[in-house]
Amino acid sequence: SVVCWFIVCFSLPGRELPPICSDVRQKQRLSIDTLPPEVKAPFPSDPVIPLRTKTTKEFQEDVERAVQSGVWREVREFYLTTFDSFIEINAAFKANGSFNTIDDSGVNAKFVNAVYDALLSTPQDIQKSVLKGIINSLLREWKGPRTKDDLRAYFILVQNPQYSSTSTYVIYAHLLRQIAALSEADHHFLVHWLKKLSPRRFRQPVERLLQFISTRLFPAEPDELPPLTKCSWWIPSATKVLGLFNAANSVSTTPIMPFTDFYNITLEHIDFMEEYRTWQNYGNSNRFSFCQFPFILSTVVKKAIIQKDSEQQMISQARQSLVSKVSRRQRVDMNLLFLNIKVRRAQLLSDSLDELTRKRCDLKKKLRVTFVGEAGLDMGGLTKEWFLLLVRQIFHTDYGMFTYMKDSRCHWFSSWKCDNYSEFQLVGTLMGLAVYNSIALDIHFPLYCYRKLLTPPTIPCDQNALVGMATATLDDLQQIMPELARGLGELLSYEGNVEEDFYLSFQVFQEEMGVVKSHNLKPGGDKIPVTKQNRKEYVQLYVDFLLNKSIYKQFAAFYHGFHSVCASDALMLLRPEEVEMLVCGSPELDMSALQKAAQYEGYGKTETTVRCFWDVVLAFPLELQKKLLHFATGSDRVPVGGMADLNFKISKIDVPTDWLPISHTCFNQICLPPYRTRKELKHKLTIAISNAEGFGLE
Q1: What is the DSSP letter of 50?
Q2: For 665-679, what is each residue's pLDDT tens digit?
Q3: Reported pTM
Q4: How are beta strands 402-405 and 338-343 bridged, if at all?
């Protein structure tokens, strides 16, 4: 067969392919945007390309004639010639003209699409001839420096739809290996070409790559593919090429597809902790780990890694405390194994701050909360109640730590100055403890806040190093202060006389505790007018002042509080959106999944009240479904693991049916009187969930 012949060719002496280039992350994210001058070497001169004049229209007419007549000779000749070498691929698909920008591949995309769209409908012998031609191309082109025409050929070949079949995987693997082994400068070009593909054309190779990785890990038939020991480079090559698509998606002005579509759910079934340990130990070597390419790991995997990592740190902390006691021949108290928080309800905030400050060495232990003067063991309910009450108090507008932005419906840091920022550190610690203890918080920060939390993702060794100073743009300000962002956008696009009509200087004013204070955006800013020439600088400095400099001390305390609990290499695997999901849960609701996972107390799942409840809830609009979830759990978001992780319970309460439903948010429990009709239940439930007091929002 074509594939067997290909394997023999690549097994001949002297035909060993160059090893895949190592992905040296050095525990940092791969940046494909900026390249040092030394990797921007000029391409070798292009070879002379034969003249091919067939147009897209002519090719499509050839295919139509072949379909009608059954005579495929002309189409067969085209495919046979075109895919026989990189030179012929360029002859067929290279557009006329010069290509001066990095975004222009010089490829006639319309023609490529037409040829590939027709390919899978041609007779089998034509499809086999294309594969054989690709083999010839790869055999000729695996060594030596690359020209830009070589890159065009790789760019075209990676879009081939034939790689959906496992029978082509040997050829596909060698193509991926050659692309993966290209230089960083070559990858830079490919990334910018890939981002120009249409969303559909972009998604297709991404899905093929994900399927290739999944099938290589878990083949449907044991003999379907060569032994894994003989092709251990398949998965690293495919993952690195997938990384080029991910980079293209990231550098695109608007993402071509959601970042979650790069997740490979199959990886939830491998030993991901072994992958994590490999990455920790060999992060800057040739040893492959999926953690080098975190975009492929789902939030479920990342959460599990963080939890396992935290468990190991908790166990280590507890063991150290235990050994210390035993070595001093002191009586061992099992409370040593926990972070024990004792608070009075009347002094909740001050007691919590004191306890966490006093026990900062125990933050990585399992959390256990006790309310002074109240009997009962903390089986999870008291811990969740402590979180809910603290969040409710801290984010209340009267408290002044955070400002609620009504237009964007989120909280932002108050810029008032004080002598002690320990309460901001408490909020950061609280968020870290919530992640470590798998508690979803009803906190509404903008996404930019989580980007600041990952700047940098681990605490710098230098204590004087700045933290949380993420690059701020007008789009970031739009998330928080949309009206101001709109005004600054109008300033940037204003066609008239900026200096005379706006009469602005590089000085801004902020109200702090009822007093208006001025701040220069640059030295002598009050004497520098804003003009058409410097307005971009003004906007950039103003945005940076609002989102970084004016709240630096508050956010630095918040950052250090969070990282005092969550200091882990695992944070480097996360995007800001994923940190938000770990802290707050996912906004995606699936009430059918909640119904399947629900538990019952006092009711059976087939009883009238329960059936009416689910009929009503499943018919609710999304807004009311969110209110129901908030009413029952204290948050309108879902844990990363899905609805099943909520442990949602419906209980019977023996009271008259004119009572409203009640909830115990600490236990994710809703209590229903025995309503007899759907109408009655809907009326009472809607009143209850629409008038319940929320946590964290006005």
Answers
A1: -
A2: 888 899 999 999 999
A3: 0.83
A4: unpaired
Residue 37 C-alpha from the chain's centroid: 30
DSSP secondary-structure letter at 644? Answer: G
Distance, in Å, from the CA atom of 316 to the CA atom of 184, rounded to the nearest integer, reads 41
For residue 189, give both structure tokens. 């070009």
User: Using an 8 Å Cβ cutoff, are 251 and 302 in contact?
Assistant: no
Nearest to 537 by CA among 507, 506, 516: 506
With contact defined as beta carbons under 8 Å apart, do 26 and 291 qualify?
Answer: no
- Three-class SS state of 213: helix
**Annotated catalytic residue: which of 566, 584, 666, 671?**
666
User: From CA 515, how far away is CA 104, in angstroms rounded?
Assistant: 54
CA dihedral over 319, 324, 325, 327, signed as positive or negative: positive
DSSP assignments along 80-110, one per residue: HHHTT-HHHHHHHHBPSS---STT---B-HH
Residues in the chain predicted with pLDDT less than 70, given as ranges, are 1-49, 97-100, 141-145, 284, 317, 332-335, 376-379, 693-698
In this predicted model, what pLDDT tens digit does every residue of 83-132 receive, in sequence order? Answer: 999 999 999 999 876 666 788 899 999 999 999 999 999 999 999 999 99
Residue whose token pair is 């294309």: 130
Q: Is 291 one of the annotated active-site residues of the chain?
A: no
User: What tokens does 649 get?
Assistant: 């319970």
The encoded tokens of residue 370 equal: 């006790």
Q: How many other C-beta atoms are found inside a 10 Å radius of the C-beta of residue 271? A: 9
* Distance in angstroms (rounded) separating the CA atoms of residues 224 and 227: 9
With residue 687 as reference, give the H or E element that holds it: helix 678-691
DSSP secondary structure, 244-305, as one string: HHHHHHHHSSS-SS-GGGG--GGGGGS-HHHHHHHHHHHTTSS---GGGSGGGS-HHHHHHH
* DSSP conformational letter for 17: P
What's the N-to-C CA distance of the chain in angstroms?
A: 69
CA distances from 90 to 77, 138, 613 (A): 16, 14, 64
Residues 6+ apart with CB under 8 A from 477: 484, 485, 488, 543, 546, 547
Q: Collapsing DSSP states into helix, strand and coil, what is residue 196?
A: coil
What is the helix (H) or strand (E) element at residue 511, kind and residue range? strand 507-512
559, 562, 565, 568: CA torsion to nearest 10: -70
Other residues' Cβ atoms within 10 Å of the Cβ of residue 568:
21
Element (H, E) at 307: helix 299-327
Angle of CA points 667, 670, 674, to nearest 5°: 145
Give me the amino acid identity at 488: L
pLDDT of residue 503: 93
Which one, of 192, 190, 128, 113, lies nearest residue 159 by Cα?
113
DSSP bridge partners of 507: 520
- C-alpha to C-alpha distance for 297 and 263, rounded to whole angstroms: 5
Q: Closest by alpha carbon to 321, among 334, 308, 310?
A: 334
Cβ–Cβ under 8 Å, residues 650 and 600:
yes
Q: What is the pLDDT of residue 619?
A: 96
